[in-house]
Specification:
Blueprint (H helix, E strand, L loop, with lengths): L3 E3 L2 E3 L3 E3 L8 H9 L4 E8 H5 L3 H13 L7 E7 L3 H14 L4 E6 L4 H4 L11 H14 L4 E6 L8 H10 L5 E4 L13 H8 L6 E4 L7 H8 L3 E4 L9 H9 L9 H18 L2 H16 L5 H8 L5 H14 L1
Helix pairs in contact: 1-11, 4-6, 11-12, 11-14, 12-13
This protein binds flavin mononucleotide.
């Protein structure tokens, strides 16, 4: 298994779990880590919210302490977002005092209206000079290496090569590139050629992102020459994707995925999330995730109805037991 390095920190594999709001909490991070992800990201955390002592953001920051208990050597990036320079800078020591992580990632890609309204996320693509000056200060303040995740343009593909070079000059240690513009959202064509251009114009590691799965990952490596690959949607309900890619990369046989193996993973995921979130929160989050573990298998629509109505760990486990008995 090959790894890569960011700022002299060894990352044990070249497969990265993307930041996924509503999904990449400790439980999915641990699932991905156990399956060999070399680097995992938190959900995006609000700089404004932490400055105003939001309990949910404090809890998320503290949950990074759980990642550090894992026996794996997986590295963790805490992703933050914000549109105001003062609160972004003010938030950094607060996050550091609450949590434990290896890299501080800044979100320059989020297209959702709530974030755009704050002139944060992908809105920074319209404020590039301000972004660079902010990054320079973040690098000074953060005791962890700063990394950045960008999209390749706002409405259309823009000169992201220039931006990438400026980001590197600001002292940022790695760049994750989602090969779509803000307008292109989360589905459809990914411009791997643009990621390749960026890769060849900077010296810091480039992590390619967008539309990657266990079938196309080798092709994406060759299309982008990236140092590592970041997976988002494919890992939701299928964290085993990391193990599949590592096996394929090493020329080993991929372990068969069956409904039974997926249910085993779902049980593990449930137990993890119910171990650190309250029952209501955990049930709400797992509603969307649990059905993705069984998607595509026979009778999954019948069980889907039951899973989306579960309100406790016990209810989830009872449904899973029923499915297991029916196999
Ligand atoms: C539900 C969902 C939540 C996401 N949350 C974040 C986030 O918090 N921060 C971020 O930088 N990107 C976020 N993204 C974007 C992903 O990190 C990733 O860039 C995008 O989904 C493309 O990769 P994929 O095709 O492998 O999913 C999110 C995407 C989805 C679908």
């Amino acid at each position: 298994m090959k790894g890569f390095k960011i700022a002299d920190i060894e990352i044990p594999s070249r497969y990265v779990l993307a930041p996924l709001a509503g999904f990449s909490d400790y439980s999915l991070r641990k699932m991905a880590s156990d399956y060999g992800a070399g680097l995992v990201y938190t959900e995006m955390e609000s700089c404004e919210a932490i400055c105003y002592h939001s309990q949910a953001t404090i809890d998320d920051a503290k949950a990074t302490l759980l990642d550090k208990r894992t026996e794996n050597n997986t590295k963790l990036a805490l992703q933050i977002f914000g549109g105001k320079k003062e609160s972004v800078l003010k938030s950094i020591p607060i996050f550091e005092s609450l949590g434990s992580y290896d890299f501080l990632d800044f979100n320059v890609g989020c297209p959702v209206p709530k974030v755009m309204k704050q002139q944060a996320g992908s809105f920074w693509l319209n404020r590039q000079d301000e972004l660079i000056s902010l990054l320079k200060e973040m690098v000074k303040i953060s005791s962890k290496p700063v990394i950045v995740k960008i999209r390749i343009g706002f409405d259309v593909i823009t000169d992201v090569v220039h931006l990438a070079k400026e980001i590197e000059k600001a002292g940022v240690k790695a760049l994750a590139v989602h090969g779509r513009t803000r307008r292109e959202g989360f589905v459809g064509e990914v411009h791997y050629d643009v990621i390749k251009e960026i890769k060849h114009s900077v010296d810091i590691p480039v992590i390619a992102n967008g539309g990657i799965d266990e079938h196309n990952f080798l092709e994406v490596f060759s299309k982008t020459d990236a140092d590592a690959l970041m997976l988002g949607q494919r890992a939701i309900g299928y964290p085993k994707v990391f193990a599949d890619m590592i096996a394929l990369e090493d020329g080993k046989k991929v372990e068969e995925t069956t409904l039974l193996s997926q249910l085993k993973d779902l049980k593990k995921h449930l137990k993890l999330i119910f171990s650190f979130k309250d029952e209501r929160q955990a049930s709400d989050i797992m509603r969307g995730i649990s059905v993705r573990y069984i998607k595509g298998f026979e009778n999954s629509s019948k069980y889907r109805q039951q899973l989306v109505h579960a309100h406790s760990l016990k209810q989830y486990l009872d449904i899973i037991e029923d499915i297991e008995k029916s196999i």
